[in-house]
Amino acid sequence: MLATRWPEAFSDPEWAFEVKWDGVRAVAAWDGQRLDVRSRTGRSIGVDYPELDRLEGLAPCILDGEIVAFDDDGRPSFGRLQQRPSVHTPISFMAFDLLFLDRPLLDDPWTARRQLLTNLDLPEPYVVPEPVVGDGDALWAGVVEQGLEGMVGKRLASAYRPGERSPDWRKVARVDQVRAVVGGYVPGDGNRAATFGSLLLGLVEGTALRYIGSVGTGFSGHTLKAIRSGLDELAVDRSPFHDGTDLPGSPRFVEPTLVALVAFKEWTRAGKLRAPSFKGFTDDEWEAVTWSAEGPPTP
Question: What pTM, to 2 d.p., does this model score?
Answer without folding.
Answer: 0.79
